[in-house]
Specification:
The protein is built from 13 helices and 2 strands. The protein is mainly alpha-helical. The protein has one domain. Helix 1 packs parallel to helix 8, helix 3 runs antiparallel to helix 4 and helix 6 packs parallel to helix 9. The longest helix is centred in the N-terminal third of the chain and has 31 residues. Pathway: Cell wall biogenesis; peptidoglycan biosynthesis.
Length: 360
């Protein structure tokens, strides 16, 4: 919105600053951060009054989690509010990718909100049926995939970029849409599975957002893409605004989600953030690199899949408990140890993913 103030600029005044994506990204970051600090306490108080007993605790979970009973959920509303306000304020609203990522994020957030509401209302951890959530997620991802293909340059439509190789594209044809659906829905649910400890999910999400923000900015500049030998996707630079807002909003949320958490993000936040990040990976043609950057989320999701399949086949368990962060809790790791070590892993994987821009 503020970008349009550049129309009043003569090239040498304050309004001209809004021409620069980096300046607007900084504005988005601080706006989202302040939003989180200002609206965090009243939102938490509101959620605490409305929810009573707070988020239901899994009866089969680690015993240390029972002390968290009464903590309100749906804190993802705070992050989504910060991201929306900052992106709409500082982003270019004539950019299709901005609206696409925002639309997917809010849509998955709506699914998560309904699921959280169902859990709190019923007083158990079941919520909305998993099949229903997946079905709605795939519908959203299908629409997103079609829009992304339509918005991409003709030479990139239906193409899968291969990291570590210069200008290598795999023509997936009609299979590209189902692939996009798996990327976006898989991302949403992988982040959702990671959100099981205080502060565990939000920091890796911010790390991933920072990494994808850099990639979006680089891929959206033809001079950078020529130097790095990556594919040029005009307009993706504006997604740096979204990513900066997500980092700012995430930090504001982490202030209240740090152990012991005063609020959980719930499915409202985790599904939304995972879906949004997956969509950025699709838009920037870095779907495979996203599997590296978000490797922590991938491992969390795989641990659940492996556990379920192996248990149904043999009646035995591979992990003491899934997702895998609970496995380490069962092995005696303190919650802060699990959280901080997983943060370190997320940072290492993000740096490896970022390195793919140059290693060709």
């Amino acid at each position: 919105m503020l970008y349009w103030l550049t129309k009043l600029s003569d090239g040498g005044d304050l309004f001209n600053l809004f021409n620069y994506i980096t300046v607007r990204a900084g504005g988005a970051f601080f706006t989202a951060l302040i939003f989180g600090f200002v609206f965090g306490p009243p939102l938490i108080n509101l959620l605490r009054r409305q929810q009573g007993k707070g988020q239901p605790i899994r009866p089969d979970g680690p015993e240390t989690h029972f002390a968290k009973a009464g903590t309100p959920t749906m804190g993802g509303v705070l992050i989504l509010g910060a991201v929306m306000v900052s992106t709409l304020l500082f982003g270019r609203l004539d950019n299709i990718y901005v609206w696409l990522v925002l639309g997917v994020t809010i849509s998955f957030g709506a699914i998560g909100f309904v699921d959280d509401y169902a859990k709190v209302s019923a007083g158990n951890a079941k919520g909305v049926s998993g099949r229903v959530r997946l079905l709605l997620g795939f519908v959203i991802a299908t629409v997103a995939g079609v829009v992304a293909m339509w918005a991409h340059p003709d030479t990139l439509q239906g193409q899968l970029a291969v990291p570590f190789f210069k200008n290598v594209l795999l023509n997936m044809g009609y299979f590209y849409i189902p692939f996009i659906m798996i990327v976006i829905v898989g991302s949403a649910n992988a982040v959702n599975l990671t959100d099981g400890l205080d502060g565990l999910a939000i920091m890796p999400v911010m790390i991933a957002a920072g990494t994808l923000g850099v990639i979006s900015y680089a891929v959206g500049r033809i001079d950078f893409t020529e130097y790095l030998d990556v594919h040029y996707v005009p307009g993706t630079g504006e997604l740096l605004i979204f990513c900066a807002g997500l980092i700012g909003g995430g930090l504001g949320f982490l202030w209240y989600n740090a152990p012991p958490a005063a609020v959980f993000m719930g499915d409202t936040g985790s599904l939304a953030l995972g879906g949004g990040l997956g969509t950025i990976a699709v838009v920037t043609k870095h779907e495979l690199v996203w599997a590296i950057i978000g490797g922590l989320f991938v491992v969390e999701a795989l641990s659940v899949i492996i556990q379920v399949v192996y248990f149904k086949s043999t009646g035995k368990r591979v992990f003491l408990m899934a997702p895998i962060h609970h496995h380490f809790e069962k092995k005696g790791w303190a919650e802060p140890q699990v959280v901080i070590r997983f943060w370190i892993i997320a940072l290492i994987l993000a740096l490896i993913g970022l390195a793919t821009l140059k290693i060709r």
